[in-house]
Amino acid sequence: MSEKTSQPRAGAAPASFSGPCNGAESLVATLVASGVDVCFANPGTSEMHFVSALDRIPGMRPVLCLFEGVVTGAADGYARMAGKPACTLLHLGPGFANSMANLHNARRAQSPVVNIVGDHATSHERYDAPLNANVTGFAEAISHWVCRSRSPRTVAADAARAVQAARQAPGRVATLILPADTAWLPAERPAPRLEVCPASKVSEGAVDAAAEALRSGRKTAILMRGAVLHGDGLRTAGRIAAKTGATLFCDTFTPRLRGGAGSPVVERLAYRGKDILRRLDDFGQLLLVGAAPPVSFFAYPGQESWLTPPHCEILTLSHPHEDGNEALAALAEAVGAPATGAVAPFEPPVLPPPGPLTAESVMRTVAALLPENAIVTDEGITSTLPYTALLATAAPHDYLPLTGGSIGGILPLSTGAALAAPDRKVVCLEGDGSAMYTLQALWTQARERLDVVTVIYANRSYAVLNQELRLVQAASGGERARSLLDLHNPSLDWTRLAEGMGVPAVRAETTQAFAQAFAAALGQSGPRLIEAVV
User: Fold this and answer.
1) 112, 235, 399, 423: which is deepest, by most CB within 10 A?
2) Are the C-beta atoms of 251 and 273 separated by less than 8 Å?
3) Which residue has the higher pLDDT, 25 or 2?
4) Per the CATH hierarchy, to which homologous superfamily does domain 204-335 belong?
5) Start-end of CATH 3.40.50.1220 domains in the chain
6) How far is the C-alpha of 431 from the C-alpha of 428, rounded, in Å?
7) Which residues contact 205 (CB under 8 A, 6 or more apart)?
8) How buried is residue 353: exposed, middle or buried, by Cβ count under 10 Å (0-12/13-18/19+)?
9) Neighbouring C-beta atoms of residue 45, cutoff 10 Å
């Protein structure tokens, strides 16, 4: 499945079923008619009518996840690869609250997501039962669009509007709150799919200004984000760079990047603010395509938060809600770009020499052995960020990193990506500390037989926090401070954790052992895990 997956036409008839329908049945049928055919779920009592409707309404694939953060992280990964929303099924306020960290990542990734949140029946609210909570308030904190159905007669229409809202450019989080009685009471009928406004056109003035800037002779950085990084826009950007000498960049945590052999080389901005400032100091102008000017991930004493040097002029070709692909095509024509641009050759790195395993040797091995058209998901942070350039000349692939900075997103995201693209191998690069947030995703991978190879960087530490402690100029080195950043005593045993979830696993402590384990995992289907002790 890819973003070219066919979508039902607007007004298409909803999925049919015999007999009268209740609100839940009208909801499921409307979702299917609107092109939503996967539901990542962690249901509870209030959602049982939705669960029951799945047996009577054809077309929806339910996927059980054992924690709500896995539910929303999987929906994020699915959307990034499928180019359309899945729905989530969540239970009341506490269930939604458990999901919010990875909804934050999905929102930052501009992923379309439709949340269905069951709530108490309207007649039950006044009793303030133990699970009663302000679901609407929770939802409004993280969603672009929120609706609480008031009647079973409106549930279907509300669902159609939720999908429409989620699919609005560049991708949004929509949350539909479903009181239990609106699910079980009789409803009229499902609703047809609603039309979605296309991405806005970029003004001719923006194209003209960008073309004039590129013709000025000033050294130019083009910073891109969104769909332009994995489709026609990327090739067009390569043509523009070939004509003008501009350097192509993406932000540090871009949602999806097409990379490897055959793609234009796009430099990923560094993580540390001072490194970004140093790199952009070489440029006289920064052209934004669906991106925002870079800022520091955190504030640090005595360091800049705004990362565009004063002498570097900022211009905007397209905003996130605008059609960046079309804008780049118009810009290429305006500057007289050639028919093709330079692309990365297929020159994967050689395997590392024998010896103890390091973070660099893990990435070198991954890049050397990566199969064609793989999906690489990455939350290794300190273990991966310094070495991702090794992927530039590896086999063609899609690269999906963490976006919003809320750790624990990549195991679920890999799960959703694998379900959206079942014919592609997913290679998940994950730190041991981050993985503990959502290790339940491994169980879903085993149950669904998803083709994911997970590499756990076992450094037995929140390594990035050791760096942060030094950067904020806090006192470091004390026993109590170190205890909050250390994952020894006891050490995590990822082979046993994975096998307990149904995923075969091995441990590697040398470069030879890791290369053998990684090659073996690539040669098999279904989930595998390698604990890389670095």
Assistant:
1) 112
2) no
3) 25
4) TPP-binding domain (3.40.50.1220)
5) 204-335
6) 10
7) none
8) exposed
9) 11
Return the CATH number of the domain spanning residue range 21-187.
3.40.50.970
Q: Which residues pair with 224 in a beta bridge?
A: 250, 289
Whose CA is closest to 74, among 351, 444, 356? 444
Distance separating alpha carbons of residues 409 and 75, to the nearest angstrom: 11
Residue 170 preceded by cis peptide, ω within 30: yes
Q: Can you tell me the distance from the alpha carbon of 207 to that of 212, in angstroms, rounded to the nearest whole number? A: 9
Phi-psi region of 105 (alpha: psi -120 to 50; beta: other; left: phi over 0): alpha
Using CB atoms within 10 A of its CB, is residue 12 exposed (0-12), middle (13-18) or buried (19+)? Answer: middle
Chain CA centroid to CA 429, Å = 14
Give tens-digit pLDDT for 87-97. Answer: 999 999 999 99
pLDDT digits (tens, 9 = 90+) for 483-519: 888 888 898 999 999 999 999 999 999 999 999 999 9
Cβ neighbors of 524 (< 8 A, separation 6 or more) are: none
Return d(Cα 241, Cα 246) in angstroms, integer. 5
Contacts of 123 (CB under 8 A, 6+ apart): 181
- The CATH 3.40.50.970 portion of the chain extends over 21-187, 359-533
| Type of residue at 188 | E
Burial 46-61 (b: 16+ CB within 10 A, else e): bbebbbbbbebbeebe
- pLDDT tens digit string along 189-211? 999 999 999 999 999 999 999 99
pTM: 0.94
